[in-house]
Each structure stands twice: as structure tokens, then as C-alpha cells.
Amino acid sequence: MLSLVFKPDPVLAGKLSVAYTWLVLLLIVVTWVFYFAGIKDPFVSGLLGGIASSGKYPARILLGYLVTSIFLSIRNMDEDYPVKKLVRLTLTGVSLATGLSFLIATEGKAANLSDMTAFFRQSGYAVWFLYFIMVAETLGAIGVLLHFKLKTGPLATTGLMLIMIGAMYTHRHNKDPFSDSYAALSQFITLGLMLILFYFEREAKFMEEEHKKTAPARVPVMP
User: Fold this and answer.
1) Which residue ranges make up each domain of the chain?
2) pTM above the 0.90 mark?
């Protein structure tokens, strides 16, 4: 049904996957500078904060478009629509966004350790659990970033999703406003899309191998 109203464009999808990766890198740099560079100028700080917060929306729209394009084209492995390349480019962008954002979040916890300790105690958790979460988030982020080398993406992503479920449960248990769970919910959705992309990656590789097996052998042309 979706294919009747949405026709993936291979050229556009390829360009947007590259644009998505560059946008992600820009947002990561801006976010790090905003939180950790110690900028005192209110105008610059406000500008960076605005870019970091508003830039997430076009990034999410691009990711949604790319995942939809891959979903509708996963069985099309001809040279006119290089699905495997599109999956890899999209996965590169979302892996950088997710892995680096979790590293930044963990660095933020470490920089505000006293506040985080107080929050965990108020939530009924032992202090050691805070350190466990920080280590788990760091390992999960590294696992996501090293997926193309070690194929650790699915396991790391699943672990990070469980942490986000725990974060949302904690806010609900504390009777915090639902807005306090927005960040965890957003990350959970992104991580879910990543799991879908990991499946597409495996499926694209399988379909490419099948396509090579069934493709007719080229007969050399005699001069």
C-alpha cells in the first residue's frame, strides 16, 4: 500500500543519505561545543542551543525518508538502485548520531556527578547503579560506532534500548512530567529504526549474493 503513494528515487535518496550524515556531524559538533566549551557569550550560546535543538527535526525527517526508501526497495538489487550502498550510508549517519550522542550524554553525567547521584538516590537506586549505567552507555555507544568493524551494532542497540526503557520507567515512577521522558523516547525510537536498518543491511547482503548467483554470465565478445 505504501508503495502506491511513495516512489523511492535512488538519486535523491543517495544525496539525502550523504546530507544526513553531514547534518549529523554538524549537530554533534554544535552540541558538544554548546555543553562543554564553556561559552559565556549569551548570543553565541543561544545560537548554538537553537541549532542543536531545532536541527534534530530535519535529521529525523531525513532518517524517516531514508528508512522508508530502503524498505520499499530492499528487493530491488539491480545497478539502478544500489540498496546496499544506501543502507550503509544511512547506517553510518545514524550510528554516528546515536553513538556520539550517548558519549556526550555520559560525559554530561560525569560533569554533573553530584546532581546525577542525588537524582538516582531520589529515584531509589544505589549510587553504584549510576556508574553501571554510565559504563553501559559508553560500551553501547562504542559498540554502535564500531559496528562496521565488529558487527556489534544490533547487540549494542538492544542494550541501549533497554536503558532507555529504564529511563522512561524511572520518570514515570517518580511521577515526573511526561516531557522529562522526551529525550529517552526519542532515542528509543531512533534505536528501533537502527535495528530495522541492521536487518535491512543483512537482507541487502543476502539479496546481493542471490542476485550474483542468478545473474547470467557475461559472454566475452570476439573482436
Assistant:
1) 8-209
2) no
